[in-house]
Amino acid sequence: MIDPGLDALLRLHGDRTSSALTAHPQFRDFEVEGGRIRHVVVPGAWVAAAEPLCPVEGRAAAFAAFAAAARAAGQRAVMMPVGVSLAAACRARGFRTLGLGAEPVLELAHWLGEDGGPGPLDRLPLARALARRGARVEEWSADAVDGPHRAALEGVLSRWRAARPGPAVGFLNTVDPLRDPHGRAWFVLFDGRCEGPAAFLAAAPVDGGRAWFFADYPRDPDARAGAVELLMVEAARALRARGAVEVRLGLCPLAHLKSCGPPDGVGEALLRPWLRHQHAAVTWPFSYAAVTAFKAKLDPSRWDPLFLVTDGARGPGLARALAWAHFPAGPFAARTASLRARLGAELAGGVRARLRPTPAGPGDALRAGACTVAAVGALGALHAARGPWPAVEAAAAASRYVPGAPTAAGVWAGPLFHNHLYHLGGDLLSFLVFGLLVEWAAGRGLWALVVAFGLWATNPLTAAALGPALGRWRPEAVASFLAESDVGSSNAVYALVGAASAGLRRPALLLLPFAANGVYLCVGRGSWLSAHHLVGLVGGWALGAVWLRWRAGRP
After folding, report:
1. Which residues contact 445 (CB under 8 A, 6 or more apart)?
2. Which of 188, 255, 535, 544 pairs with 89 at a CA distance of 20 to 30 A?
3. Residue 113 β-bridge partners
């Protein structure tokens, strides 16, 4: 349940769309005159959520007190999102602002067609078609949502989340509508296709019920097209009957930045073009452009600009604070969890349970990938040592693997040297990517086997198999094959690629591009020794497949 004191402040001063969302338990209280500032503490910053819950005329002073306390603790202060009036008042006190985007608002008298204009179903053909098919919307009481019908809504919410793999987003983007159903209006849609509810909408009162915020509206992945639009139309009609004047749809990040007015100084002027590009480019943790397009489809009556306020520079430190505020476990952990979720969609059945946990942060990632990082560092250092130390350069020259005259140095040391920086950079970058992938997912045992096979077994195996084969099918190529020479760690890269592909539902997605490159080097470039890449690819895949079978038999 919401703290009674906080509930009273929300009723009295919660006139901003995001005010209702500050009731989530992750927020702390900072006491100010006449109210509170709800905020989170992240590395390097205190981040206030929405405008202070206090009288309007005292909000700029409240943020100033909040910023002073943050500075005393060695932190910067940030507040978002805030409206035009508070942003201007904070600028007058010397704080910096940044346009965050805009919020679409439905002015219900006009939007519902009460003035004789078109109604919402005239503008939303999918919702209109769904209504004609007999879909219906019911309003449920908070007691019903918290009681007999809770399981049905939890089912919709869990299926909605399962269809959107990736990390949960925190701060004001937390999706937990059923945590405390009281104090909200609940609307549930039945579309005739899904068993039970197809979607539901939780609306929070704003500004004493004059406005309502459509806070959460999850839908079943099998719901018919137009489900959410029809749900919003019927919810808006019901709320209008209670006297509501408008419905607010929440911030569209980085949308309609022109509505935020002139930039606040040179810093924002330089940022604006990049931010506009980011609106179209960002797809993680969700697509900004897609969210804006969906809400724009509802034909909002207006777009209200929203801002961020800070007492520091609008640069990397601010970006870091925002990332930590939205991903409390750390942005690195959130990003790797998201990538793991996407990769999980490509994994073969049962493979996910055999993999190691995702690294929780950069330090954990380095520890979990220590062998890869150490190997890349050692190979790079060995190449760098060739310049100042002639003995190392001499060792490199004597370590080339030649199929017709193999030496111990060629077999064991040749894969550790590289021809030039381009060769070194390509091999090491690929080694880092696929080495970390295998080491993070499967551990150091498989990693060591695959790397050792790629570095030291592929050349001898290729020479043993290809020499007799060429003698039978391409005798004219035998002499050039036996005279070829090779150095470099690319064979280990191919082996790591093969091992990584063993866990995929469609291994060909990874194997074919690398196999095609190996075939091109053999046939197109006439380098038959390059078949060692194919040997590495197949051998790595076999080792990965054996490891997965072995892991399947262990608890």
Report:
1. 547
2. 255
3. none
For residues 409 and 394, what is the distance between their CA atoms, to the nearest angstrom? 12
- Render pLDDT for 50-60 as a digit per residue (tens, 0 to 9): 999 999 999 99
Q: Can you list the positions of beta strands (E) in 217-281?
A: 246-248, 252-253
Return the axis-axis angle of helices 508-519 and 490-501, rounded to nearest 10°.
Answer: 150
Which residue(s) pair with 268 in the sheet? none
Angle, CA 114 vertex, CA 112 and CA 115 arms, to 5°: 120
pLDDT at 413: 95
Closest to 101 measured CA to CA, from 85, 83, 76: 83
- Bridge partners (DSSP) listed for residue 451: none
Residue 458 is inside which H or E element, if any? helix 458-473
Closest CA to 181 of 210, 139, 223: 139
Give, for 212, the enclosing helix (H) or strand (E): strand 211-216
Tell me the C-alpha distance between 360 and 351, whole Å.
Answer: 20
- pTM for the model stands at 0.73
Q: In 299-413, which ranges are continuous DSSP H helix?
A: 316-326, 331-344, 362-368, 370-384, 390-397, 408-412
Summarize pLDDT for 285-327 with one digit per residue, the tens. Answer: 889 999 999 999 999 999 999 999 999 999 999 999 999 999 8
Alpha-carbon gap, residue 265 to 269, rounded angstroms: 6
| Cα Rg of the chain, angstroms | 30
Give the whole-angstrom CA distance, residue 280 versus residue 292.
Answer: 10
Q: What are the angstrom distances between the C-alpha of 93 and each of 37, 53, 54, 69, 456?
A: 18, 19, 18, 16, 67
**Cβ(38)–Cβ(53) below 8 Å:** yes
d(CA 368, CA 370): 6
Buried b (16+ CB within 10 A) or exposed e, 119-155: ebbebbebbbebbeeebebeebeeebbbeebeebbee
Taking alpha carbons only, the member of 373, 337, 389 closest to residue 358 is: 337
In single-letter form, the type of residue at position 199 comes to A
| 555 pLDDT more than 80 | no
Spatial distance between the Cα atoms of 168 and 39, rounded to a whole number of angstroms: 18
Report the C-alpha gap between 204 and 56 in whole angstroms: 20
Domain boundaries, the chain: 349-552
Beta-ladder partners of 104: 303
